[in-house]
Amino acid sequence: KKIETARNLISLRKSPPAIKIEDVPRFIEWAQGHEESLLTYRDPEPRKTRIKEYLDSGGEIPGVSVEQKQSLQIK
C-alpha cells in the first residue's frame, strides 16, 4: 500500500517472519529435554561500565586501558 503526496511517499510492507516464544522458561525446559540444538549458551562477556569504574577508582587490569576518541558532529 502506498500513499503519495507532493512532499512524501509513505508505503507499508510486510516484515520478514519472526519467531514469537510465549513462555520462554517452558520452551527452554522442553528444548533441554528434546532438542538441545535449539538453544545457545553465551560465553562470559566483559562488563565495560564496571571495568571503567574499577580503573577510574585506581584499579589496574593487565591489557585494559581507557581511551578517549574524537568524533565529528555536523548539524
Feature tags:
single chain; 75 residues; alpha+beta; two-stranded antiparallel ribbon; 27% helix
Describe it.
The protein is α+β, with helices and mostly antiparallel strands. The protein is 27% helix and 8% strand.
Radius of gyration: 24 Å
The portion of residues assigned to helices is 25-40%
Number of helices: 2
Given the C-alpha coordinates, what overall shape results? flat
**What is the string of SSEs from the N terminus onward?**
EEHH
What is the number of E strands? Answer: 2
Widest beta sheet: strand line-up: 1-2
Report the uncertain regions: none
Structural class: alpha+beta
**What percentage of amino acids are in beta strands?**
5-15%
The profile of the biggest β sheet is: 2 strands, antiparallel
Span between termini: 34 Å
Q: What is the average of the pLDDT values? A: 92
SSE arrangement:
Blueprint lengths: L1 E3 L4 E3 L12 H11 L13 H9 L19
Antiparallel strand pairs: 1-2
In short:
The chain is 27% helix and 8% strand. With 75 residues, it is α+β, with helices and mostly antiparallel strands.
